[in-house]
Amino acid sequence: NESRDFVYIDDVVEATYLALTAKITGVHALNVGSGVPISVHTVASDICTFFSSNSEIRITGEFREGDIRHGCADLTEVHRQLGFTPKWRFADGLRQFLEWARVSAADTSTYNQSLDELASRGLLHG
């Protein structure tokens, strides 16, 4: 049930544009996100619902060493410095992405070529 701050690409583009055109000086670390934590389980469930899938979602309890359990961006400084406020709600952004994915055919023409390249560089294991 770990959570992340999922942000839609249009909001990232907007924040980047604001950062590039801002009339501020100095060096600033600015978080860009939605400001709303969403559980990974919710993401998986919403994807299954969108595609009318009855796939089983298994919680294994496994984790990656050093990974955080919960992450959510504090947008206070990015709003203060750039006036950035995210416009996309998670559900709307996910639906927009999944609608695009449904109608976009995956280009698999270079898949084997990419595997060969990874193997030749010693980056493909097992």
What's the SSE blueprint?
Blueprint: E1 3-4, H1 9-21, E2 38-39, H2 40-50, H3 76-82, H4 90-103, H5 111-120
Antiparallel strand pairs: 1-2
Describe the structure.
The chain is mainly alpha-helical. The protein has helices at residues 9-21, 40-50, 76-82, 90-103, 111-120; strands at 3-4, 38-39. A two-stranded antiparallel sheet has the order 1-2. The radius of gyration is 19 Å and the shape is extended.
Could you give a short description of this structure?
The protein is mainly α and 126 residues long.
DSSP E strands, number: 2
Q: Per the principal axes of the C-alpha atoms, what is the gross shape?
A: extended
Q: Please give the radius of gyration in angstroms.
A: 19 Å
Structural class: mainly alpha
Estimate percent helicity. Answer: 40-55%
Spatial order of strands in the largest sheet: 1-2
Intertermini distance = 29 Å
What characteristics describe this protein?
126 residues, mainly alpha, two-stranded antiparallel ribbon, extended
